[in-house]
Amino acid sequence: MKSYVILNAAMTLDGKIATKTGNSEISGEKDLIRVHELRKEVDGIMVGINTVMVDNPKLTAHKVSNNIEDNPVRIIVDSNVRTPLNSNVLNDKAKTIIAISNNALSSGNNNEKIEKLKKHADVFSAGDYPVDLIKLLDYLYENGIKTLMLEGGSTLIWAMFKHHLIDEIRLCVAPLIVGGFDAKTLVDGEGFKTMAEGISLKLKNSYSLDNDLILEYDCLY
Ligand SMILES: NC(=O)C1=CN([C@@H]2O[C@H](COP(=O)(O)OP(=O)(O)OC[C@H]3O[C@@H](n4cnc5c(N)ncnc54)[C@H](O)[C@@H]3O)[C@@H](O)[C@H]2O)C=CC1
Ligand SMILES: Nc1nc(O)c(N)c(N[C@@H]2O[C@H](COP(=O)(O)O)[C@@H](O)[C@H]2O)n1
After folding, report:
1. Which of 57, 83, 128, 151 has the fewest Cβ atoms surrounding its Cβ within 10 A?
2. Secondary structure of the chain: what % helix, strand, coil (to 5)?
C-alpha cells in the first residue's frame, strides 16, 4: 500500500512554478490560506531538496494554525544528503523525514552530516541512486502517512508522475506570464516521448479565488 498523493502547486498562466531566478511567490493570499488548510488536513508534505535549498520553506500550516499538532510530517527527498543544517524544515514545529539514497549512506562520506541531521529528523534510505520513490511511499504509508501532499518542485513532480504515484492534482493558475527557458515549469524532467504516454486527467472541480483559478483533477492510470 502507498500514501494517497495530492500534488498541489501554483503556476503562472505560461506554466511556470518559479521565475528563472527561483522566485515562486505566485498565488494570492486566499490561495495560500487554501494551501495551508490542505497542509493541516494531510498526514505528510513532501518536497525535493532543490525546493528546500531555493525557498527554505517551513512546510507547516502556519497561516491557519499555531498548533504544532496541525502540522504534517515533512518529507525531504534528498539523495545526496544536501539538506542544510539551518533549514527551516529542521525546526521543531513538526516531525521531518529526510529520504536519502543507499549510495549516500554506504559511501561513508556523509556519516557526520547524517548524525547531525538525525538530531532533528528521521533519516530513511531507499534506492541506490536516486531515492526510490515507490519504496519511500510504502515506508510512509506503513508509518501512518496515509495522505501525502506533494508541493514540488518540477523535478520531483516529474519523477512522481513517471512512476504513476500522483492520485490527484490541485493547481492554482495565477494571471501572470513570466516566460524564460530556465524558469521551472510544473513538470520538468526528461518527459514522455508521445502524447499517448502522457498522464490523462479528469477535471473534477474548478473555481476562482480572487484573481486566481483553482483546478482540481483526478489522475487516470
Ligand atoms: N509554485 C509552486 O507551487 C512551487 C514552486 N517550487 C519551485 O520549484 C523549484 C525547485 O524545483 P527543482 O529544481 O525541479 O527541484 P526539486 O525541488 O524537485 O528537487 C529535485 C531534486 O530532488 C532530488 N531527488 C532525490 N531523489 C529523487 C528522485 N527519485 N526523483 C527526482 N528527484 C530526486 C534530486 O537531487 C533532484 O535534483 C524552486 O524554484 C521552487 O521555488 C517548489 C514548490 C512549489
Ligand atoms: N501553492 C503555492 N502558492 C505559492 O504562491 C507559493 N509560493 C507556493 N510555494 C510553496 O510554499 C513553500 C513556502 O512555504 P512556507 O510558507 O515557507 O511553509 C515554497 O517552498 C513552495 O513549496 N505554493
Report:
1. 128
2. 25, 30, 45
Atom of ligand 1 nearest to the CA of 10: 3
- With a cut of 50, list the residues of the chain below it in pLDDT: none
Q: Which CATH architecture has domain 4-220?
A: 3-Layer(aba) Sandwich (3.40)
- β-pairing, 168-174 vs 73-77, is unpaired
Q: How many whole angstroms separate alpha carbon 130 and alpha carbon 136?
A: 11
* Degrees, nearest 5: CA angle 13-155-138: 120
CB 149 within 8 A of CB 42: yes
Ligand 2: centre distance to CA 51 (Å): 9
Adjacency order of strands within the sheet including 147-152: 122-125, 96-100, 73-77, 44-48, 147-152, 4-12, 168-174, 212-220, 200-209
Q: Other CB atoms closer than 10 Å to residue 179's CB: what's the count?
A: 10
Is the distance from the beta carbon of residue 186 to the nearest atom of ligand 2 less than 6 Å? Answer: no
- Distance CA(78)–CA(89), nearest Å, equals 13
Counting from 1 in the atom list of ligand 2, the atom nearest the Cα of 25 is 7
Strand 212-220 vs strand 73-77: parallel, antiparallel, or unpaired?
Answer: unpaired
Paired residues of 62 in beta bridges? none
CA-based nearest residue to 187, from 15, 2, 45, 5? 15
Amino acid at 56: N
Instruction: Quote the pLDDT of residue 105.
Output: 94
